[in-house]
Specification:
Elements lengths: L15 H12 L3 H8 L3 H8 L7 H11 L3 H26 L9 H6 L13 H12 L4 H9 L5 E3 L7 H17 L7 H12 L6 H14 L3 E4 L10 E7 L2 E6 L6 H17 L4 H4 L2 E4 L9 H14 L5 H5 L4 H11 L3 H10 L24
Parallel strand pairs: 1-5, 2-4
Antiparallel strand pairs: 3-4, 3-5
Length: 374
């Protein structure tokens, strides 16, 4: 672990007034003399020398004529000094805001590379505040509460314990940052529907084959697709949302994901994009999903579940599905459906046709590459 500090800002940065005083001392001038030569009052010169008033463009031009060095030199000295003062003020504010850190999953963010790793000592916490503000892209904890806390009203939860706004907002922001780095075309519903057909045909392939193909298809359809490590406390493994009016985002974690859960979650989120974005009000919804959550009272979740289940195995095959009692029968049915046998096993277990302990070796555990973004 390393100590986290603010961006380098040396304590010796001085106001332009120090340089002004050095020059007039060399010339044997008083501040009264300088004021006369500049055409300013003695009070204004005193304030200028002591950094009480900013050095204006006009003052820089006058100093160029009276003391030498060009106006750019004086303006650069002023800008550097004001930046230094602003950083000192920010450090003081960050020290007052350290209590905000208690709301955030700092260790998980460090593990994901979203913020620098550091020990959680008191002396490091102001620096952590700055790192977290940069990560969330907000100027203060108040703005974080207004933006990410305000987003809570748009959450459509699949389970009641999805209430840790700090953990959920951190996970959502990690997805936002990935999506921001991969700009794409506007959403095209027809292309998205065609992409989903092709993606369904990839469920028997390895992640090395289907994942880049999947990203390419979704990108061309105007849908951002990101994989983000799970955040403890968020209780979210998938989300569908619109990051702007023309660009939807499907975000998945790999928390406890075997291939049956992965594919069901993906198509569940796809259903939200297709079915639940018919108005600007609906596009403001943020669907927080967890396939292990059990039944939800939300009608949108019921619709997405039914759509995803039907898309993978159509309900017209329900009777044939119910007759599958052996490994060989599962394999044959999966080949007929052109999907991975693990998906069939997951469906059989979900529908209570076979016990949850049966045929789990036919499923595949995924370990897809996920990007770490700071």
């Amino acid at each position: 672990m390393t100590e986290l500090s603010a961006p380098y800002a040396p304590d010796w940065v001085s106001p332009p007034g120090d340089t002004i005083l050095d020059i007039i001392e060399e010339r044997g001038w008083s501040q009264v003399e300088l004021a006369r030569r500049l055409g300013y009052t003695e009070k204004h010169v005193s304030q200028l020398v002591n950094g009480k008033v900013p050095l204006s463009d006009e003052a820089a031009m006058k100093l160029e004529l009276v003391l030498g060095s060009n106006a750019g030199f004086w303006l650069a000295r002023e800008a550097k000094y004001r930046e230094h003062c602003a950083r000192l003020e920010a450090e003081r504010a960050h020290a007052e805001w350290v209590v905000w850190l208690d709301l955030l999953p700092l260790k998980a963010l460090m593990a994901a590379g979203a913020i620098p790793k550091t020990t959680l000592l008191s002396k490091n916490k102001p620096g952590l505040v700055g790192a977290c503000l940069r990560f969330f892209g907000v100027a203060s904890p108040d703005e974080w509460r207004k933006h990410y806390g305000g987003m809570e009203v748009a959450y459509r939860r699949s389970r009641q314990d999805q209430s840790d706004v700090g953990a959920i907002s951190a996970w959502l922001r990690m997805g936002e940052k990935q999506a921001e780095e991969a700009d794409g075309p506007k959403y095209d519903k027809v292309k998205f529907e065609n992409a989903l057909k092709t993606i369904r045909s990839l469920t028997s392939d390895s992640p090395a084959v289907f994942e880049p193909r999947m990203r390419h298809l979704l990108h061309d359809a105007g849908v951002a697709f990101v994989l983000v490590p799970g955040i403890p406390g968020a209780h979210v493994s998938g989300v569908a949302r619109w990051i702007n009016p023309t660009r939807p985002l499907i975000q998945l974690s790999l928390y406890g994901k075997t291939n049956d859960k992965f594919w069901f979650t993906f198509f569940h989120e796809a259903a939200h994009i297709l079915l639940h974005a018919n108005s600007q009000a609906e596009k403001k919804s943020i669907f927080l999903d967890d396939p292990s959550a059990g039944q939800s009272d939300d009608s949108h979740e019921h619709e997405a579940n039914e759509w995803a289940g039907d898309y993978l195995i159509a309900r017209s095959f329900s009777a044939e599905l119910a007759s599958l009692k052996s490994r060989a029968a599962v394999i044959a049915f999966a080949q007929k459906m052109a999907i991975h046998p693990g998906i069939v096993v997951g469906r059989l277990q979900h529908d209570g046709i076979i016990p949850p302990s049966w045929l789990n070796d036919m499923k595949t555990s995924f370990c897809l590459e996920v990007a770490a973004h700071g």
